[in-house]
Design a protein that fits this description.
This protein has 2 helices and 5 strands. The chain is α+β, with helices and mostly antiparallel strands. The chain folds into 2 domains: 31 residues; 90 residues, Nuclear Transport Factor 2, Chain: A (Roll), CATH 3.10.450. A hairpin with a 1-residue loop joins strand 2 and strand 3. The longest helix is centred in the N-terminal third of the chain and has 29 residues.
Length: 126
């Protein structure tokens, strides 16, 4: 009887350990990291348009979103949108800038531009 109870206890412990490890491994992939998003997603486009309008106002010049080349999202206490965008600057003969930006959207839906840098790799465009 003691041997049977000991075997049951050991098997239960082994399954519990493997179950915890599996759960931990799955949640590690899902939580905190950036996940690829569609460049055509309405929420991605809204975040991109917000970023371009903020920068246009800061720079006191017209900027036009030409295309979203890459998009990723990260779930935090809200959402971070990591975007690589082609931006047209009409005042500079339509010069195209490739911008790597992060836009944070809080739980109330408000945006904040947290980074805006020129992407030297042209968002992977050739």
């Amino acid at each position: 009887m003691k041997k049977t109870l000991m075997r049951i206890f050991m098997l239960t412990a082994i399954f519990a350990v493997f179950g915890c490890l599996t759960t931990f491994a799955q949640s590690d992939d899902e939580a905190g990291g950036y996940v690829k998003a569609s460049v055509n997603d309405a929420k991605v486009k809204a975040a991109a348009n917000y970023a371009v309008s903020v920068k246009a106002k800061e720079r006191n010049e017209k900027l036009t979103l030409q295309a979203i080349k890459k998009a990723e999202t990260q779930v935090v206490a809200g959402i971070n949108y990591h975007l690589c965008m082609a931006i047209s600057v009409p005042q500079n003969n339509g010069e195209i800038l490739y911008i790597d930006a992060v836009i944070y959207q809080n739980l109330q839906g408000q945006y904040k531009l947290t980074s805006w840098e020129e992407d030297e790799n042209n968002c992977g465009a050739e």
